[in-house]
Amino acid sequence: MPKINLKLLKNQIKKAIGSAKDLKELNDIFKRYLGKRGELTQVLRSLEKLPKIRRAKVGKEANELKNFLRIKCDQKAIGIKEKIRKETAKIEWIDITRPGEKPVLGHLHPLSQVKNKAEEIFQLMGFSMVEGPEIETEWYNFDALNIPKDHPARDLWDTLWLKDNYKLKTKNYKLLLRTHTSPVQIRYMEKNNPPLRIIVPGRVFRHEATDASHEINFYQVEGLMVDKKVSVANFKAIIQEFFQKFFKKPIEIRLRPGYFPFTEPSFEVDMTCLTCGGKGCSVCSQTGWLEMMGAGMVHPNVFKAAGLNPKNWQGFAFGMGLDRLAMMKYKINDIRLFYSGDLRFLNQF
Ligand code: DAH
Asked: How does DSSP classify residue 219?
């Protein structure tokens, strides 16, 4: 029987617990005294071997020490946990009064907004929306539109040619990036019989130097209406209605003679200058008019190329620049801004 010095043991316990730095150390201390082979456990076990008188006294003291150890360990554990909580709170604190972060919501590009608006207005007037491929054959982009090979008219459209050719049956067609949306006129009339009313919004490409009013790619809206009796008067009424709805202002338009191989007669279409209301200003070069689109009555050769008999049908076609429309609407003076991806510009719409 070892000599039992409970006072000494109590002092040791006090010291050990006092210097415990974390929960693991505390746990080890507890085990050291009260585990299976713990020092205090051994004392408690040896009690029965003591003479009765001593047993009662030592037993009482040993049990008090056991409770003492338990309580001290519990208190110390609470202290350590609180310390950990305070330290993590210092690093990971959350300010619940701070306003939440607003998610950045995107929106449609101004050109998409203008395209959607144009589609909506034309659809209200009975036009369907049709699309065509951006990679086109020479046939649809030029030949079928009555633009003969080697004719100077081709110079009107600076073309980006592709290296690959497209083979259809025995014929080999050169491929290009479409220079306008007009080829979709042919594509649509090949498959659909008149009467028809379509608009074709889409991206087009030109091989040219860029400046404030020219880009190598931009957007057009093509229009085509074919029936037994469709006149220039119908065209004028529809386009005037379109501009008034689009700009939400009374607008006048005028037709000037123009030249396009796929229409006869052909026109350039002007509308009242929005900035000065027609009085003349720097935007319209003092004329009071702004040039908005090319148009005309569908050329008989175009009907023929699409497999329709020009004796049975007549119609008008037009093509306008969507970018130009957007520039007028929002008073933007450089087309390149649309393609810059600059959020300072885009966030204004
Ligand atoms: N395709 C022409 C261009 O890009 C615009 C155009 C003019 C379209 C007359 C037409 C039209 O449909 O009839 O310059």
From this structure: E
The answer as to whether 25 is a domain residue is yes
pTM over 0.85: no
318 domain residue, yes or no: yes
**Residue 324: CB within 6 Å of ligand 1?**
no
Q: What is the number of H-type helices and E-type strands within the chain?
A: 11, 10
For ligand 1, is residue 146 a contact (CB within 6 Å)?
Answer: no
Structural domain of 292: 110-346
Shared-domain flag, residues 45 and 166: no
Pocket test for ligand 1, best of 208, 260, 298, 325 (most atoms within 8 A of CB): 260
By CB atoms closer than 10 A (0-12, 13-18, 19+), residue 339 is middle
How many CB atoms are closer than 10 A to CB 318?
A: 25
Alpha-carbon dihedral angle through residues 148, 162, 296, 199, given to the nearest 10 degrees: 150
Which of 36, 63, 91 is the C-terminal boundary of a domain? 91
Residues 74-123: tens digit of each pLDDT? 999 999 999 998 888 888 888 889 898 889 889 999 999 999 999 999 99
Residue 98 in domain: no
- How many other β-carbons are positioned within 10 Å of the β-carbon of residue 212? 12
